[in-house]
Structure formats: C-alpha cells, structure tokens
C-alpha cells in the first residue's frame, strides 16, 4: 500500500535533517531499498551507504541549516514530487529545489531525482 505524498516528502526531508549518523543510517535501512539511488545536479549516491555519505556531505557544507517542505507534494502511481527549501534555522532560504521519489510496493524508496 502506497503512503500519501505528504508523508513521503516529510519523511524524506527528515532523513536529510537527521544530524545523528547512526539514526540517519537506521532511517535509510528502514525506508530505502539496498540498491536505491539518489541523484542531484551537484551529487549522487548509490545504495544506502552512498546516499548516507551524500547527505553527510551536504550537512557538512550547510551546518545549522534545515530542509523544509515548500507547498503541497503530489503523487501519481509509484512517484511523489515535492519542492523544498534549505535555510539556516530562523533564516531566509539559501537554496531550494524539487525532488521526485520513486517508491516500490512496500513504500520503500528506490530512487530520488532532482530535475536538472
């Protein structure tokens, strides 16, 4: 059974906002397939470890920043699309984008792509 787009988007951003490496790894193990792929115009990660490393690198580049949902996510079939912003806590956004997540039947993420 597929999860609603809002929950998928919020869970995805919570992963990126998770500061603890062990907790982030647990979220990846629970919510992403072993061969998942995450692609962004500036970086990419293959498998749960590669995605975890990608997130850690982004967090190191933007310490004290948080990803926030922008607008309402939408979904169709196994895909969920949503927009986000990145801002320092209490500050104005410094970046933003749109991601598309593909889910498998169990609602685990198989891929994430940010349009170029």
Keywords summarizing the entry:
single chain, 116 residues, alpha+beta, Nuclear Transport Factor 2, Chain: A, 6-stranded mixed beta sheet, 3 helices
How would you describe this protein?
The relative contact order is 0.22. Strand 3 (65-76) and strand 4 (79-88) form a beta hairpin. The chain is globular, with a radius of gyration of 13 Å. The protein has one domain (5-113): Nuclear Transport Factor 2, Chain: A (Roll), CATH 3.10.450. Helix 2 (21-31) packs across helix 3. It has a six-stranded mixed beta sheet with strand order 2-1-6-5-4-3. The protein is built from three helices and six strands, in the order H-H-E-E-H-E-E-E-E. Helix content is 34%, strand content 41%. It has helices at 5-17, 21-31, 47-61; strands at 32-39, 44-46, 65-76, 79-88, 95-103, 109-113. It is α+β, with helices and mostly antiparallel strands and 116 residues long.
Overall CATH class: Alpha Beta
Give me the strand/helix succession: HHEEHEEEE
At CATH level 3, the topology is: Nuclear Transport Factor 2, Chain: A
**How large is the radius of gyration?**
13 Å
Residue ranges: pLDDT <50 for 5 or more in a row?
A: none
Oligomer category:
single chain
**Biggest sheet statistics:** 6 strands, mixed
Summarize the amount of helix as a percent range. 25-40%
Strand content range: 35-45%
* DSSP strand tally: 6
Short note summarizing the structure:
By secondary structure, the chain is of the alpha+beta class.
Which helices and strands occur, and which strands form pairs?
Elements: H1 5-17, H2 21-31, E1 32-39, E2 44-46, H3 47-61, E3 65-76, E4 79-88, E5 95-103, E6 109-113
Parallel strand pairs: 1-6
Antiparallel strand pairs: 1-2, 3-4, 4-5, 5-6
Helix pairs in contact: 2-3
